[in-house]
Every structure is written in structure tokens, then in C-alpha cells.
Amino acid sequence: MSKDQTYDERNGSPGPVRLRRLRFSPGLRALVRETDLLASDLIYPLFVRPGAGVKKPIVSMPGQFQWSPDTVVEEAAAAAELGVPAVILFGIPDFKDSCGSSNLDPGGPVPSATRALKKELPGLVVMSDMCFCEYTDHGHCGAVNLPGEQGYRADLPEGYLLNDQTLDLLGRASVVHASAGADAIAPSGMIDGMVGAIRTALDAAGLEHTAIVSYAAKYASAFYGPFREAAESPPQFGDRAQYQMDPANWRQALREVELDVAEGADMVMVKPALPYLDVIRAVRAACTLPLAAYQVSGEYSMIHAAAANGWLDLQRCALESLVGIKRAGADMIITYFAKEAAGWLA
Ligand code: PBG
Fold it and tell me: Which ligand 1 atom lies nearest to the CA of residue 234?
């Protein structure tokens, strides 16, 4: 048999190989489908601010809102009803200072919302995003080097993010959030040693059952633009390139994951998702932990913006991007489409 003979020819049927046979009907397509996108794969990010009765639209993210601890329960209940198993909470405090002290307040928006959610919806998994950028007046993800501030170091540049002071803050805030009932703490600041510091602090507080979902490979991405409006957290000077990853790197993502695993992470994450599908694939191959991918605010908003112009079909593009993220190797996806997509998939 010559090398360029097709399979069909070998079977005595001349002509091209007909892969289209298995695409002939919806039934056949369903039978050979390799990737399933399920509501149970989705995690719904929710923004919580203090107060009651709040449902404030986020202009750059159509369909997304800032909630208060009471209203967020209604929204989470609607998502859970459609089969979404988990939420991840972001806080917008009333008060910001240089070290983000309101993130240590047990009465802050996220601990309050967590208590309300665990009371009303005990089966819902509540993850607490753990970062200081929403709580600091300078908008950086921890304590920064500023003259006159505690721990100032003349040998380091002004505005430099102070790693070890930040680890201490992360450990203390994680204990506050976990004590409010969070099932998992999700550190998102790309601070070296954050997973180990949080694990140590949680264990010392008797919170050894609380999981850590590490934003292990988080890139310094322009796709976070709309989030910074949503969480009211843009950096007031500089950017995050000294702690978040360079978009050009993938081997370094494996190194980040390796260290977080060694420090005791229970799950790891790649973020953003769509421009980093190769990283998701590489992490999937290198690591046995559950892998989450974060379809970030910009990925959500660009589909919405194009759909609003009539250029793209919202539902089909949202579902196609989500199934692509799963196909790349993610076990679960944090997505602002979670509630809506669960409805479409029902
Ligand atoms: C906080 C944090 C950010 C996001 C999640 N956690 C913003 C940032 O790092 O600037 C982005 C999420 C999104 O864009 O949807 N560190």
C-alpha cells in the first residue's frame, strides 16, 4: 500500500477520508464530543461593598454589579439554583489606608458576605480572593516602601512592594476571612511565599481545613482593565509588573506552580485564560492538582462590547471561549458568565 493512499481506499472505497460522517447529526456530534462544559465547572466572581440593598451596575462589565452582603446572597442563590457550585468574593471597603487595614476587619464586606452566604446557602463553596489592592489607598497588592511608613527601607526604591511585610498581612487577613467561614482562600497578589505564609497562619489558628487556591501564574495583563473599575482598585502610581508575570513567559509559570505546590497549595490557577491557553495546557501536563483558569474582566467585556455592536453573538462566543479554556486543560473556570452560562447550559 503506498503511503498516500487513504484509509477509505484501503477499504476499497476511493475518495477522501470522510471525517464529516461523525458530524452528520446532532446525535453523532454529541457522541464524539471530547470536552463537556458543565455548570458545575463554573465559579462566579462577585463584588461586595458594605451596606444593605446595594445592586450597583459596573458600567464596563454589562450585567455585573457591586452587591452588599444581603443582596449578594440573592445573586449567589440564583446562580446556585442553576447549578453553579462556587463563588469567589472581592471586597470594596469604605475605608482605605497605606497597609489595607480594613482587610483585617471581621466586619468588612467579604467576611460579612461570607457569613451570610454560609448561613443561607451552606452547600455553596465560598472562596475569598485574598489581595490588598482593593484595600490600600495606593492600590498596590500589599505594603509598599514609602518614607515615613512602617518598615521603610532606604536601600529599596520608593513604591517597591515589600514582600515580607505583605506576607504577614496576608496571613492575618486570611485568618479573618477563613474564620468567617470561607471554604478556600485564594491569594491573588503574586507575592513570593504567599501560599506558605497563609498555610502557616491558617494552621496556627486551627483553620487547617481551609483550602488554598493559589493564583499561581498570574500575568501583568491589560485585560484586568474593567476589574479595576469594578473593584475600585487601580494602582495610583506605577504598575504591577514587578510582581505579576511577564506575558511573554511560560516556563516561569511552571516554576511558580511548582513553588506553590511545595508551599501547600490545594489548587492552582492560571490567569487570564484566553491569551494563555498554552500555559493552561503546560500546567495541566506538569501538575496533578486541580487547575482553575480565570476568564478575566477584559475577556468578558470585549465579548459584550462586540455583541452590543452586533459584531459577535454573545452566547455562542461566551460558550465557545469557555469550552476552549476547558479543552486546554482547566478543570474549572472563574467567569463573570457563570450564572448566565449555567442558564444557557441548562
Ligand atoms: C487583585 C485581583 C485582580 C484581579 C483579580 N484579583 C486585579 C489585578 O491584579 O490588577 C483581576 C480580575 C479580572 O480582571 O477579572 N490582585
Answer: 10
Amino acid letter for position 89 = L
Distance (Å) from CA 186 to ligand 1 centroid: 12
Ligand 1 centroid to 296 CA: how many Å?
Answer: 8
For each of the domains in the chain, give its residue range(s) and CATH number, in order of start: 1-33 (no CATH), 38-345 (3.20.20.70)
- With beta carbons less than 8 A apart as the criterion, state whether 304 and 327 touch: no
What is the CB < 6 Å shell around ligand 1? 129, 131, 133, 141, 188-189, 224, 227, 240, 296-297
pLDDT, tens digit (0-9, with 9 covering 90-100), for 82-124: 999 999 999 999 999 998 999 999 999 999 999 999 999 999 9
88 beta partners: 45, 127
The residue with cell 476587619 is: 105
Q: For a pocket test of ligand 1, which of 214, 227, 299 has the largest count of ligand atoms closer than 8 A to its C-beta?
A: 227
Collapsing DSSP to helix, strand or coil, 300 comes out as helix
Cis preceding linkage at 272, omega within 30: yes
- List, in sequence order, every residue forming a beta bridge with 48; answer none if it has no partner: 67, 91
In angstroms, what is the span from residue 6 Cα to ligand 1's centroid?
51
Taking the centre of ligand 1 as the mean of its atom positions, its distance from the CA of residue 227, in whole angstroms, is 6
Question: Which sign, positive or negative, has the C-alpha torsion 97, 99, 104, 109?
Answer: positive
Residues 67 and 48 sit within 8 Å (Cβ to Cβ): yes
Average predicted confidence (pLDDT) for the chain:
94
Catalytic residue list: 218, 271
CA distance 249 to 61: 28
**Which atom belonging to ligand 1 lies closest to the Cα atom of 225?**
14
Question: Phi and psi for 42 in degrees, rounded to 5?
Answer: -105, 145
Each residue of 251-307: pLDDT tens digit? 999 999 999 999 999 999 999 999 999 999 999 999 999 999 999 999 999 999 999
Where does residue 171 rank: exposed (0-12), middle (13-18), buried (19+ CB within 10 A)? buried
Question: Which atom of ligand 1 is nearest the CA belonging to 296?
Answer: 15
